[in-house]
Amino acid sequence: MQASKLIDYLKALDSSELRKFRKFISSEYHNTNEKVVRLFDFLRKHHPEFDSPRLKKESVIKKLFPEFKKDGVKKFSYVTSDMFKLLEDFMIDQELTGDEVARQRTYVSALSRRQLYKHTLLQIEKGEELLANKKPIDHNHYYEYYRLYEIGHQVAFTEIHLKGNKVFEELMLHLDLFYFTTKMKYGLVMLDRERIFNEKANILMLEEIVKYTQTPPFSDNILLKTYDALYRMLNKESEVERTTAYFQLKGIYFDNLEVYKIGDQANIGILLQNYCQRMAKGGNRDFLRELWSLNDESIRKNIYESFDQGQHFVFFNAIQVGCELGEYAWAEEILVDFIHIIPEGKREETKGICFAYLYCCEGKYEEVLELLRDYLFEEFYYVITTKYLTLRVYYEQGHDYAFFNFTKTLMAYIRRHTQMSEQMKEANLNFVKFAERLFRNKREKKYAKEELQIKLNELPNIAYRSWLERKIIEC
């Protein structure tokens, strides 16, 4: 039974939840089948892996239910079915217990359904208070208001209702807020995908909604102000307007971090970083330092910890940016003081690649090669970076044989690699070939700096452009 849905659900419970579930199924109000308790007490001993051979269905039936003489598998399925249903009920109960707003709304609905209108109105007011004080929030926050007032609307026709049109006005306002924030949030996702993947987005009424959000009573709403700035940053044709929107968004974002839910906090941070990267790649070096400043503030305010996944990539990118700007002391401080924010399974590998990159930029080439030998890198992006760092070391050390032997091997590796897109292969192959040209030019002095820069500019898709430009200056 290791591969069953029941086991999958039990694996998802932590130790505290297992204890609560034991109390849940021990209550006669929830469960009258003592065989469920017997089965659970056996299964919980194998948490969290549930990979023991003792969990084979036939073995469990034989050990726990010797009374199942006939049709044992069928009878056992009744027990597992009962347990699974109880587990579903338990999960729902836990969600309601942990969500004050949802619990209050359910309570208000129960009172209204029983025609306890006076008490319903009192509890609606309590629900309003809970929502007003709730942080963080997202677009669903306004839907919760709407659902609460929708119940109030049902009470509005009773003779004890004294609020007049207030409940209807609040219902409509929060319905608008829910619709506007939801439409803008996912409309912006579509616009970003359009830019990245060339997917033409057909988003009805988005521009009209953006205009509405700039007028009362919507113009002071933090989420709508955030999405408005995001829209202008992603959608305006003028670079000046986009950059103005970037700095407005950055200010709104860092001044109101507690307002955003975890996922939204991470996504907005990534969009800010992406804008800086696009501007820096477009030749605006000021935005490389802006990206460094953004990373520094994000790390120190623990924003990276809000990322569901990918903290290690974002952290490594921050270290790279700092190193490219010569902020070596900063990079080392961040590595020592904040490496703990990386999930344990990725921490050592990330630490290794970050220090290797730092040492390479500092010119500590032997330390780089030593680190690359000592660490086993499994992340694809890290593996590619180790190749780049090795090439840089051989280039700087000036060993002809080691350098050209490595570049030959590296180009074969890139061409046959199945995880790389064709665009990524082209960018990396262009980099290796151009690095070879620069290496030869150090000896032959065949090209002037200006000629090399022109040839580099003719390659729009090339990896590690900034390093190549620095090497051209040194020629």
Question: How does this structure look, described?
Answer:
By secondary structure, the protein is mainly alpha-helical. Among the domains are: 94 residues, no CATH class; 79 residues, no CATH class. Helix 9 packs parallel to helix 11. The N and C termini lie far apart (67 Å). The relative contact order is 0.03.
Quick take:
By secondary structure, the chain is an all-alpha fold. The protein is 73% helix and 0% strand.
Taken in chain order, the helices and strands follow as: HHHHHHHHHHHHHHHHHHHHHHH
Helix share, percent = over 70%
| N-to-C span | 67 Å
Query: Sheet with the most strands?
Result: none
Radius of gyration: 30 Å
Number of E-type strands: 0
What do the pLDDT scores average to? Answer: 91
Give the percentage of residues in beta strands: under 5%
- The low-confidence runs, each spanning 5 or more residues with pLDDT under 50, are none
